[in-house]
Design a protein that fits this description.
about 400 residues, alpha/beta, FAD/NAD(P)-binding domain, D-Amino Acid Oxidase, Chain A, domain 2, 3 domains, 8-stranded mixed β-sheet, 7-stranded mixed β-sheet, 11 helices, 15 strands, about 35% helix, globular, binds flavin-adenine dinucleotide
Length: about 400
């Protein structure tokens, strides 16, 4: 049995679903292939920033945040190792979701727009024939005009094109929570090299995790110590809970020139995640939208070559991630990190500015935020900026 689609998308996470949603809306026949059956679990802190919810409101109108937000917070506590450094209360809200729910809703949205989906088929690199533009999925061949790899870190399309990856390991566990207590979330610096620990409130549990640019063994040892500390106040052992690991892109550029010109990568598969915060859901959805736009423009010009156009449209994302990597290397350098932790005890406006304008809204990017901050500080101290005073 063979089928033909304008666009074949490997992976039904936020990147694949958003690519499919936008393409269906533009009238293309699409098919998503995923190795899992949705709803499926996905290891993730599930923090959604305002720019993510804004993007959803724009591209998925009618999708009610109440359906996927399980908790929200406006207070974040920063820790350096086990010591609390400062607490910040922000005007903007940070949302927390469960990826089982969130990804399923996006896939349902895509299906309602008329997209097709094949579930529980794990593709291998040998299933993709770039020369014939086919993918063998289970028993049948699928022909495509354009191929999108939305299959996450270590995705099958990158492997088929022999693209070298630079991902690192994160570990996560769920610990019990009294839902009436503590709505704040916590960030722990100084525990992992080039990374941090997080402590996010969900409905009935805390999602506790850690990631960093370290070997698998080093990060597992550090994460277990951190989990033990996190459980300190509870009469439970880390061993009572499942600790799971998953990869996150480091932000280093991938060599996509190895891909055939009618194929492209989105989301984690493309290496799109904020190297400082690890935020990837926003970039997954945004690159999905960009991919659909690039495919649409190429198809309208009757061209199969989409890679060049797509690379151009995601160039701002790449540049921003490159700048974030630069900042990360400076910020996480141990003596600078220690000095920075001291600094944020007394100079709170910088953190407020960064949280609001870079992380939450994305109004400024990693390339220009420091320049804007210093310029504004020189001319109108943020102490008098009502926008930055909670
Ligand atoms: C521990 C951890 C915590 C995180 N916390 C946050 C957070 O709080 N906020 C945030 O914004 N980001 C977070 N991230 C990053 C975020 O999870 C990713 O950036 C995001 O999931 C990327 O979406 P995606 O669609 O590109 O890939 P994915 O969500 O990974 O989806 C890929 C899909 O492809 C399918 N697939 C894979 N291989 C195959 C195959 N061979 N055949 C068929 N299907 C296949 C998978 O089943 C999956 O459904 C975190 C990541 C980790 C690891």
């Amino acid at each position: 049995m063979s089928k033909e689609f304008d666009v074949l998308i490997i992976g039904g996470g936020p990147a694949g679903a958003m690519t499919g949603i936008e393409l269906c809306r533009k009238g293309y026949s699409t098919c998503i292939i995923d190795k899992e059956i949705f709803p499926r679990p996905k290891l993730c802190g599930g923090l959604l920033t305002q720019k993510s919810t804004d993007l959803l409101a724009r591209y998925c109108p009618g999708l009610d945040p109440l359906e996927f937000v399980v908790e929200q917070a406006q207070t974040v506590d920063f820790y350096f190792q086990d010591k609390k450094v400062n607490r910040f209360t922000t005007r903007e809200v940070y949302y927390f979701t469960e990826r089982t729910i969130f990804d399923h809703l996006l896939v349902q949205y895509y299906l309602k727009l008329g997209g097709r989906m094949i579930q529980q088929v794990a593709l291998r690199p040998g299933d993709i024939d770039f020369g014939k533009n086919t993918v063998t999925a289970g028993t049948g061949k699928i022909y495509y005009k354009y191929l999108v790899g939305a299959d996450g870190c270590n995705g099958v399309l990158s492997r088929a094109a022999k693209i070298k990856r630079h991902d690192f390991l994160c570990l996560e566990a769920c610990f019990p929570r009294d839902p009436h207590n503590e709505k704040e979330f916590r960030i722990y610096f100084g525990l992992a090299n080039m990374g941090y620990g997080w402590y996010f409130p969900k409905k009935e549990h805390y999602c506790v995790g850690m990631g960093g640019e370290e070997s698998g063994k080093a990060i597992s040892d550090k994460a277990r110590r951190y989990f033990r500390e996190a459980l300190n106040s509870q009469s439970a052992q880390v061993e009572d809970f499942a600790v799971k690991g998953a990869l996150l892109p480091s932000g280093r550029k991938l060599n996509t020139r190895r891909l055939p010109k009618n194929s492209l990568l989105v989301g984690d598969a493309a290496g799109f995640a904020d190297p400082v915060t690890g935020e990837g859901i926003y970039y997954a959805m945004l690159s999905g939208v960009q991919a659909a736009g690039a495919i649409d423009a190429s198809a309208k010009n009757k061209k199969r070559n989409v890679l060049k156009r797509y690379n151009k449209s995601v160039w701002p994302i790449r540049k921003d991630i490159r700048a974030a990597r630069f900042w990360k290397r400076i910020l996480y350098y141990p003596p600078i990190l220690r000095a920075f932790m001291k600094h944020i005890q007394t100079h709170t406006n910088f953190v407020r500015f960064y949280l609001k304008k870079v992380i939450a809204t994305g109004e400024f990017n990693y390339r220009n935020f420091l320049r804007v901050y210093l310029k504004n500080r020189a001319f109108s101290p943020f102490a008098h900026d009502p926008d930055l005073t909670p």
